[in-house]
């Protein structure tokens, strides 16, 4: 019984020590906070207006793991990739903030960034899709961020790993002729409350794995060659259209 108690105590101590090591000391990470219930390790950074303060926090936590990052109510230049290169971030959410750019350079190829959420943020340089050219996100959700056009840079930069794309209230008015043609795993596409005028079959991969398409509150023209694509969908939402 005593041996069992000793073993249990040692395991508890080991768990405590290892869990503490996942998060740096709170003072080191200021003005951010770290939360970790075994997994994932989440950094929450709110109300930051000093780029140097954020850089210092990441520098102080250089040797600590980071799985998810949440940035809100902040005004910064960018997220410094050079100070995040030891991390393996899979989730980034940025909301209600102003930035010059999301990153100062593309994330490193070994990074497993899978989920990107951008909501109600102002980017002085716009959404630079080339910053994602070295990673393979599966989900990109963007809401209330100005993206007037999905152009050639998007097509060249976003990899076929993408399965879900949301462009909600992004003021998007047009797509490149081959905008999503390389996204052979895209099965969920939402582009609601936007200004899309034309939709063509050539914009999507052939064959296409799409099973959900949402153009709520969008009035657009689609060409008859889209009918076969639409017929394969499980769910399609739209409000008004003309067909040619």
From TrEMBL:
Signal peptide: 1-19
SUPFAM superfamilies assigned: L domain-like (SSF52058)
Entry keyword set: Signal
Stored Gene3D superfamilies: Ribonuclease Inhibitor
Protein name: Chaoptin
Organism the protein comes from: Nephila pilipes (Giant wood spider)
